[in-house]
Design goal:
Two copies of one chain form a homodimer.
Chain A (H helix, E strand, L loop, with lengths): L4 H8 L3 H8 L7 H14 L5 H8 L4 E7 H6 L1 H16 L3 E7 L8 H4 L5 E5 L5 H8 L5 E4 L10 E4 L1 H14 L5 E5 L5 H16 L9 E3 L4 H12 L5 E4 L2 H13 L9 E3 L16 E3 L2 H16 L7 E3 L2 E3 L13
Parallel strand pairs in A: 1-2, 1-3, 3-4, 4-5, 5-11, 6-7, 6-8, 8-9
Antiparallel strand pairs in A: 10-12
Helix pairs in contact in A: 1-2, 1-3, 2-3, 6-13, 9-10, 11-12
Chain A binds a DNA duplex through helix 2 and helix 4.
Chain lengths: ~325, ~325
DNA sequence: ACTCATTATGGGAGCGCTCCCACCACAGCA
DNA sequence: TGCTGTGGTGGGAGCGCTCCCATAATGAGT
């Protein structure tokens, strides 16, 4: 009932070996033979049996993409990385097995440990040490999206958080802000630490060091932006740098509730450039992270690892997106 | 180097057949034998080779989840369906191959047409007729999430949009609103049509028919909510039903830009219950769609189809979520 | 004690493909 | 004329598993 390679071979008068080679583009077959075989294959509606191919070749043509369930639920950013991964995977002829882990299982799932994939792309931030080290025993090529403290040596694809922090510092400084508050991300996460420390360092370099009482810590959620604001708003900063857009959204909302508004009373900067950023009121100045590019880069690295080529962790450039949530100090509109 | 079933068989002194049966839970093996084999398997760190299993059994244990790329990028709702699918798939021992299609390719992709999966779950709304009919030729069990005009007979998992429209009508009517505007979704989509028609029908039933000039059509985006508002705001409705949350967000923003506010000047209702809804200002009254449940239901149907059992399309119940964006007419809060 | 059902196990044939190796034809070269 | 090289092809051995069928071990019935 199903057309197999043998049918194609018989139909075009060659052996199965030759048919296989012709269809996989092996250079050793004569051009005439190849095109004949390909014509017959198309004619018969042949398509290779993936399982047989995998078994015989020992490869699967698949990468497993492992995502903490909580991330996708909370953060649209993750969806963009997934999109980038799928796009690049399709281009290089791979399929993507999506494994969303609830993190309730302390061990890496079956698909990760065995068989189903040639490599692993892991959204790293939320996974525990045990989980990651369990994965590590698979010896599968692995790329982390985002750094992870427990795996300093892993191949990762990250954003240039350091540069992002500096860009924000310079931007606010140029606008004349000298009393700037920071709503940092959870400091157990490397990306959150980088954003904070590079920002503080750059502000210091610009002769506007940020005092401790203007630094608060949130957990990257809207709610923590709102509550984090209350601890710094009394100090009357002229600008607030929230370490991601969700917290920035919380800050904007908190300001509104407190009867203040951005940017007239306080300039606000986020980080991530989520799609919602431009629909906020006011549209949010932020740092663009290009998660699509991160996903694509992850697959590019993966392809190279699978081919046994040497690879290095990649840092994706960021850039500042200036919108209406920031404005020069002392130049109030209307 | 890799532990195979033969190793386990040899290690536990049984044949490969028995080992296979023991590990797959076949009832015919003696309990003692089974536990011995399982112990040895665990001891050796055995895990089955997926490709071999697929080839021999003719099944893959995989469902392909096909998502239009644009959807995931624009609509967080899709991420929730994906989450539900992954969750349910894991529970029934399947893995999920995520295929994001840019829709630029007019033919269904390879993975869909052949081999890689036992069944197909398709986020239907954005796919063209050609694409869907191409998929149809695969004869794979297929479940659509959301209806599709071109496939009236397909097995689908949808929300109870009719009930949703009615719930909104009754809610607004109970609050005393008699002059209600509707910002409908794109009428080429069945779900958008259902929301509109059921809403209009229920309003008529409640003796408050909605005149034509209070109905506008958007495309389910924030921007179209904003622009759609302009065409109805001059008619001074006391409430607006936007057919999804994104458009409702646009409406809220438009109202603010026009110097009005919800719910004091106009009550606003959305549809979807996206996570952002509760972070809007004011938090949005909306209809909860439970996309997680839809994803889970899709897999449940898929499992049954794969087992050859009869299935019927499912409609997931909705419910009204009342928040601060709606309030009784004639009781203005200052 | 002998048959017949029942339960537990082993043997072995594939699943459809890839890939190694052998082979053939024919060229070029001594 | 024979020898090595080379481009093209065929043969066939697996990849690791499942599942059908045969066989062996057990128990029940007359």
């Amino acid at each position: 009932m199903v057309v197999t390679l043998d049918d194609v071979a018989a139909g075009s008068g060659v052996s199965r070996s030759t048919a296989s080679r012709a269809l996989s583009g092996d250079a050793r077959v004569k051009a005439a033979t190849r095109s004949r075989v390909q014509a017959v294959a198309k004619d018969l509606g042949y398509s290779p049996n993936q399982a047989a191919r995998n078994l015989a070749s020992g490869r699967t043509g698949t990468v497993a993409l492992v995502v903490p369930e909580t991330n996708l639920l909370e953060n649209p950013w993750v969806a963009l990385v997934i999109t980038g991964v799928c796009r690049a995977a399709r281009r290089s002829g791979r399929s993507v097995t999506l494994w969303m882990d609830a993190l309730s299982t302390e061990r890496a799932p079956e698909v990760v440990r065995h068989g189903g994939a040639d490599g692993l792309v892991i959204m790293a931030s939320a996974f525990s040490r045990e989980w990651i080290s369990d994965v590590n025993t698979t010896r599968l090529p692995t790329v982390l999206v985002g750094e992870h403290d427990e795996l300093p040596d892993a191949i990762t694809v990250g954003s240039d958080n350091d540069e992002g922090g500096r860009l924000v510092a310079r931007h606010l400084h140029e606008l004349g802000h000298r009393k700037v508050a920071v709503l940092a991300g959870p400091q157990e996460r490397p990306d959150a630490r980088e954003r904070l420390s590079s920002f503080l360092a750059e502000m210091a370099l610009l002769d506007s060091p940020v005092p401790h009482y203007l630094v608060a810590e949130g957990d990257f959620s809207v709610g923590s932006g709102l509550s984090g604001l209350t601890s710094i708003i009394d100090e009357q900063p002229t600008a607030i740098f929230a370490a991601n857009d969700l917290m920035a959204a919380g800050v904007l909302r908190g300001l509104r509730l407190a009867g203040k508004s951005a940017p007239n009373d306080v300039s606000v900067v986020g980080f991530d450039n989520l799609p919602i950023g431009k629909d906020l009121e006011p549209p949010l100045t932020t740092v663009n992270q290009d998660p699509l590019a991160m996903g694509e880069e992850a697959i590019r690295l993966m392809d190279r690892m699978i081919d046994g080529e040497p690879v290095e962790s990649a840092v994706i450039p960021v850039k500042l997106i200036t919108r209406r949530s920031t404005m020069p100090i002392n130049v109030p509109l209307d």
